[in-house]
Amino acid sequence: MEISETVVRVDPSFLQEVNQRSGQLIQLCYHCHKCTAGCPVAFAMDYGPDRVLRMIQFGLKEQVLGSSAIWICASCETCGTRCPNEIDIARIMDALRQITVEEGLPTKERNVLLFHKLFLSIVKRLGRMHEASLMALYMPLSRNLFSYIPIGVKMIVKGKIPLLPHRIKGSDEVKKIFERSG
Amino acid sequence: MRVSYYPGCSLHATAVEYDLSIRAVLQRLGVELTEVPDWNCCGASSAHSLNETLALALPARNLALAQEEGGDLVVPCAGCFSRLKMAEKVLREDPPKGGKIEKVVGFKYKGGFEVRSPLDLIGNLIGLERLHNMIQRPLSGLRLVAYYGCVLVRPPEVVQFEDPENPQLLNRLLQTLGAEPLEWSYATDCCGGNLALTRGDLAKILVTKLVSKAREAGAQAMATVCPLCHMNLEMRQEEMPLFYFTELMGLALGIEESKKWWGKHLIDPRPLLRTLGLTD
Amino acid sequence: MRKVGVFVCHCGNNIAGAVEVERVTEALRSYPGVAYSIDYLYVCSDPGQDLIKEAIAERDLDGVVVAACSPVMHETTFRRTVAAAGLNPYLCEVANIREQCSWVHRDDIERATLKATQIIETIVEKVRHDEPLLPLAMSLVRRALIIGGGIAGLQAASDIAAAGYGVILVEREEGVGGRMAQLSGTYLNFDSTVDLLREKIEAVTRNPHVTVLTRAQVEELGGYLGDFKVKVRRQGNDEEYEVGAIVVATGYELYPQEWLSEYGGERYPDVIDGLEFERMLSPTGPTGGEIRCPSDGRVPQEVVFVQCAGSRDPERGVAYCSKICCMYTAKQAMMYKMQVPQGQAYIFYIDIRALGKGYEEFTQRGMEEHRVLYLRGKVSKVFPQDGKMMVWGADTLSGKGVEVAADLVVLATPMVPSAGAFELARKLRVATDKHGFFSEAHPKLRPVESLTPGVYLAGACQAPKDIPEAVAQGSAAAAKVLSLFSQEKITHDPIVAVVDSELCAGCGICVEVCPYEAREIHPLTKIAVVKEVLCQGCGACLVACPNKASQLRNFTPTQVMAMIGALV
Amino acid sequence: MVIGGGISGMQAALDIADSGYEVVLVERLPSIGGRMAQLSETFPTLDCAQCILTPRTVEVGHHEKIKLATYSEVEEVGGHLGDFRVKVRRKPAYVDWERCTGCGLCQEKCLWQVPSDFERGIGKRKAIYALSPQAVPNKPVIDREHCVYFQKEGKCGACAKFCPVEAIDFQQKEEIWEEQVGAIVVATGYDLYPMERLSEYGGGHYPDVIDSLQFERLLSASGPTAGEIRRPSDGAVPKEVVFVQCAGSRDPERGVAYCSQICCMYTAKQALLYKHKVHHGQAYVFYIDIRAGGKGYEEFVQRAMEEGVLYLRGKVSKIFPQNGKVMVWGADTLSGKRVEIAADLVVLATAILPSQGTSDLAEKLRIKIGESGFYEEAHPQVRPIESGAPGIYLAGAGQGPKDIPEAVAQGSAAAAKVLALFASEVPP
Fold it and tell me: What pTM was estimated for this model as a whole?
């Protein structure tokens, strides 16, 4: 086992912040690891969900928010469904991502954040998704310029990706929702 | 029966065959669909990753519109379904948070209607017996696995579906259609759909595993309920055809226009259907 | 006019920390009817009690108010004290200024002090109108009923019968022995449970004082401490028995595997629970003690034991720890290794709870001598693949995911109260906790008594426990019964309802509302009568009576009005 | 005869006496109550230990069938089942208890203070003392070692001067007498593993590293700090407290091989009570396995976690003082991290040992002692109460570590054995 960082003092304020945001009681976790055992993408995370909870318990805010785990989480909800202590870990992952974004902290998985931001910017403008616009924006910015072109073309040919965006009538209302949601 | 209908963005684009088949099948089963007018995107996984209020308010606007229509709200996309269910739960059970959402959207949640998946509507409200009686062309010989994915069944306290570890409704429905649903242990394992565009490498690993497990179980195809899973599974492999379950229903119910759906697939299912004599 | 003495307790800091007891004492001194008022550090202590006795003698008190903790705690103590000083014990009352005052008003000494004064004043008013009462005498049948013929029930039966008292042992199954009879062996020493049990069973069945009723269940219970009337349904017939005390020893069963669907219990033949594995290990079991996969009879080469399969899991199972699983799993893994030395046993656990004498050493032995591999983590999913059972788990200690292709999976599912325990509890009028286990009178000091007089608890019906604990509890319950039976006479609290025959119209509402069946309409006079030994003084009849004919001794309307008067 | 006046022995004595038989209760200390009298509040209900214990001690003290022989020890045992002859030796109290009223004046007037064993050395008592104001019997004894009258040949004598009933008797001698009894219940309880033997944890040299019974006294409303949590070195309220479980337990190398069974629960309770008293304080618990096996125990530990007690899985490696703090070096195996905490106070949950004199008494009684030094029962599963010697029964922690409800159940169970035995001689 690697023995790495040293915790000198526990700061419960981060725990409280995440608890409050996610509506969970992270201190109830007794670290049975069932979440990590069932997580489909834990193999790709720097810290499994269990470790993320542990680091929150320790108050290691920077490490948690800088982890790849919080962006790799696929929100599949397996962890929370099987957790014996009724901790909905997916909600915690949401909260951690939200804090990272709000505080403008650097992220390990840049593209995931980029994707979400672009996605929402389109919804804010149109009220709905427009896949062609999303891909046009995402591919160059994510430096994934060509990987999705063949499949994209195939879909356009099959009429599965409309080329022109559709703006809903109530797009102003949607914009207002965005603004009021902060 | 009259219900309102929230197709969601995918069904107007990448999952157009899901949209077409649902409309056709429900019409055949005597369900009148009214599309929620001027619906908006539910925010999908992006909103809940970045902004909780937004993640509840975007679906809540659709609930507000559906409330005016009356009748239960059918949401075929599992992703949208879970977001709308989540908003519904907050509006029903969490007055402080719900009140905030109502303010953001500018409406008052009155309730009196349920957000339902089409699987729930067909399997539980219409009933498989009724469906059975209407089958014209049993899908004999079609061996497939039912794939529920994640968010139709989880988190259980939000979606209020069956046992999230061992759901059976889709299997029973496929059986009703005359097909042969196979036992496998991956029916609710994640395909990585949320990472499809951002961490394609991970999605590829998960999809490959699912497809190989389905093949090991002896499946010729997979039946899906979610456009995000469906697309993710279709774009990362070329051997295992996929069907929205409503497409299979259309076929079994003898709906003529089902033929038009197959051309929309990225993996052409017609060779398989031909070997089974299910299409020309 | 009564002369009341008031004794205000500091309870160390418990009361004095929030209530200025000296001021309270001073205030009471001038209250009407109070002839004496004093404060003391611990009134419940010997010198504290002496203080009361002396005051009664010297000041000629004929009423006592002790302002202290809840009457549940010390009412008996202080009533005994005043009785020793020659005063009727029912002229002593406790004013609760701790739980209902000092403990809840820590932050406002001023108002806590005022409130304490007022509480005491109301109780002074009550004492001024209290009547001296005499305890009610009750009959005592010196025969015990034991419900459940498992190890705890057998132990209680044999200890009671050994003292020469009659015992009726009611067992639902064909034979006695309970769960222990299903087990392969005990932990620590692998002793045969069948042999150990035989000795206990013979001690019971050969004792002429014991009547064993198998395939029998308690159908109905009437009566009360010292004189219960029990209807037992045995093989279709109802039989009536009179007993003086009851020991409940109904044991446990296991949480249904099918409720843990991520583990696939009941769906897959090679996923079994702890008791099923015990039967497999047992020489008297279906495989004659050989370990075989139920699916195809092969000898399993890799066995995974899943602890906490539903325990410590408020979401999918039960919130509590099942206590015995750590140890029996260690035993099972060791027995497996003894039989299949080249096989591998894995145990998934969260905490190894080796709670008993020699238990820690035993689990250590499993790890060292038998190479049982302990993995710290909960299993996430179990499913079949290529004829094996795939187990997805983790080892938190290495931080790695673990996947085992097992031949057999044994789930240590939680202990839950046995079927029918809840209905039985209702018949016996005994409280159960939220999990359905019988509730003890006090978790520390009265572990084998229920709150219903004359009903005692033994074994796993009260909470998960292992054999030695169940045996100790069986004996402990027997001690309670023996103490009871050795009394020359038993008495009942006289704070019971009375009926004013002038006012009673015989409407019968009180008969309906009485939860203790302590009321009936007299066949001749047609008015309500109180069966005093059954009455628990709850007051339901007082509220229900439209004519105000029902009254509770020492809680009369005059008293209550006077108490309210002290407040307003 | 019941040997040991702790909760288990008292329970046995009461159950036997309530059935009408005579009981002699022998207790080494001046008053009964045992370890429980030292405790603050009890898990999982957080009942005040003193509050639930006092009625019991009072009941025992007043019981007409119970003869209390406190400040006494068993000297010699002869005879057999049904007819034991036990010699009891009573130490001189130098106070005539017949005369003494327990007024406490002598303790007030005594000029000489020494660290109190009852307070585990963190509080003081006088050279003439009773264990607590609620002691049963509430009669003092003079500690000859520290009494100036004895040490300086007749000087002082303040207690005798002030005693209103002339109960002080400096000439009192020890007393030995014989009791004839039919059965014996052994309930001699436990001690804690001495901190001195845990040198990596400071071996008792650092004032702010204390054992769990000392912490109980700090928590207790009747303790030396009146229930306020103040660390021994400077009386400061500790902001960070580290609880070290398995300090000597589960450690065949440096301590004992067995698990002490109760530490997980009392530590959870102590950490929780600390949080209740010092709201902004942080409590850390180092553990290996959390062993919460009893009714409501698991939920109780979860409650402690919920209220902010941080559990760290790992054994502490070293404790040492630094800049007015106590440094704790440990690890958390769940995160694979090394942990270093600058604590204000460290509480060691030291192992439970059979109480001093257990093996001597076993020899006198001719009963067996097991590998770990506790009395050995006749069979670990089905005869946990019997000693193997006819007529001698075991109760409480002398047989192995156990918590209060188990000790009470065993006390009652031992009583049942005695009652059955007596009944077989004299039919009811």
Answer: 0.85
